[in-house]
Amino acid sequence: MRKQTDVLVLGGAGVDTIVHVPELPLPFADSYMIRPGIETRAGQSGDFVALGLHTLGLRTHHLDMIGDDHEGDLVRALHRDRGIPLTEAPLRGGTRRAVNLVGPDGRRLSLYDAARSDDSDRFDESTVRELAAVTRHAHVVITQPCAFTLPVLREAGVTISTDLHNWDGVDSYHEAFAVQADVVFLSTTALTDTERTMRDIAGRGRARTVVATAGAEGSYLLHDGELTHTPAVTPPAPVVDSNGAGDAFASGFLLGLLAGEHPRRCVLYGTVAGAHACTVPSTRTDAIGREELLATVAELETGCAAEGDLPAAGPA
Known about the structure:
By secondary structure, the protein is of the alpha/beta class. It has one domain (9-14, 45-89, 126-304): Ribokinase (UDP-N-acetylmuramoyl-L-alanine:D-glutamate ligase, 3-Layer(aba) Sandwich). It contains 9 helices and 13 strands. The chain has helices at 45-55, 70-82, 125-133, 150-156, 175-180, 194-204, 245-258, 263-277, 290-306; strands spanning 5-10, 15-20, 38-42, 60-66, 86-90, 97-102, 108-112, 135-140, 159-163, 183-187, 209-213, 219-223, 226-230. The strands form 2 sheets. A 9-stranded mixed sheet has the order 5-4-1-8-9-10-11-12-13, with helices on both faces. Strands 3-2-6-7 form a 4-stranded mixed sheet. β4 (60-66), α2 and β5 form a beta-alpha-beta unit. It starts with a strand and ends in a 10-residue tail after the last helix.
């Protein structure tokens, strides 16, 4: 039976308030004059992954808990305006929100409001089962209460990916996601030994594929025990904000994965999508399109072939 949805994204819906600061870390001062201003817009990790996948032409559905508030209306409007199906459950604490401090070089510092979620928050299991039954793949964001959906998704037979973001390799909250996903993304930001953490994830869990992104240093791929490095690519425009780059990387990678590409080529897809995201101002929610991504990848592969370093292609 042909599935109705390519990717079900669970969790990560919310609103960010963007504050441009003169530098990071921000020195203490009584006040700052902020230009180009302070703006609140919908878009957190799950929203960005769903938007990225949808823009790349994948049939995407987003499930999350959202508050009955103005911020929730912004999230609903984002999905409605972009044509991304959204199934929502009520979040009693209010829609998740964060403040992002963005420096002139595009680096950002996120301040997450941890008071919005409660340990008792749960998705309706029957809803998760119904959505999983018609989807090919599930991308699970590490927000509460997504960990409880992992066994249900596994029973439904869908493959699972997750992004541990800036996990330090120790914090126990992330472990349920790390060991139950087939594909694991994470950042090297807080890791003291990237390869050891990647191999630990693969050794203790289900993942055949672990990807660690390292910003301007590129990314590392562990697939079937082999570790490879992919350098970063030059962004198509000046870097203005790194917010959402990891989500864009995951979206690009999943496009390749669901097309049957080898993970090394999927990493190239993700690298191009992530570089594009760094050129998008933090107040906007734009994502790279399928044609642009594929054309850029083809150009890069032509260059790699000329240098004798073409990434392996074909089914994983």
